[in-house]
Amino acid sequence: MFPIAFHPLYQHSLPEGHRFPMLKYELLPQQLLLEGTASQLDFFEPSICELKHVLAIHIKEYVDDLLNLTLDPKAARKIGFPLSKELVQRELIIAQGTITGAQKSFETKVSFNIAGGTHHAYSTHGEAFCLLNDQAIAAQFLLDNNLAKRILIIDLDVHQGNGTAEIFQNNPTVFTFSTHGKTNYPFKKEVSDLDIAFEDGTNDDEFLKTIRKAIPKLIETHKPDFIFYLAGVDILSTDKLGKLGCSIEGCKKRDETVFELCAKYQIPVQVSMGGGYSPDIKTIIEAHANTFRAAKDIF
After folding, report:
1. 252 exposed, middle or buried (CB, 10 Å; 0-12, 13-18, 19+)?
2. Structural domains in the chain, sorted by start
């Protein structure tokens, strides 16, 4: 079908207090296999990302502090996870999963990373459970290796991709587009190339109408030859950390909209799963699985 990055460390390197919402990293592959949306051959296990690719995005001082576990306590608290070698290794593996998936997308049209979507990681620091910005690292990798010339990042998570916006703020070859809850974290927003902030309780109709109008214009104007899509399912009305009012069906139609446009314009796409914090794990798995189902139907 299409390549899917998955590694055991996605789940098992996380501290005990954060295990519940992260169960999706273990359960989502099981669901995709059980229902036949994916086969075992679709999954690949990423290696650890080479530091030169990380350093193309993140400053050396910050990366060294992560690797040596010498991050200032205040900076570590901003990340939200207790820092460990396993956690840093996990982030390096996630980044490589997105790089490798992006490379594969040129042949398969679409690829997935079961984890990723770490869009709160800045060039200089991490925050909100994001240490390294996987899609930013992969986007720069494609540019540096002449695999793409113009990139569009479509971030439809409920939270603004503030780190991604900061990283590419002076890079005209990467267009950053973020939709998010107006009153959601981060409370101080960065400036993406295009930001659309939704009011609390925004429903399916308004959300879908907005992106169906915006994304084709961006494609026509920016003319990307590669798209990164952050498909967080925290836009659901049930999400504990989100304030929007979308349904599971509306979330699936969002994914279908993105994939249909990628297929129409023949632009390869890499998808990182992003957030999802509904109290019922079944809701999270169903919403994320819908993203894969939509891709299977369209590509």
Report:
1. buried
2. 4-298 (3.40.800.20)
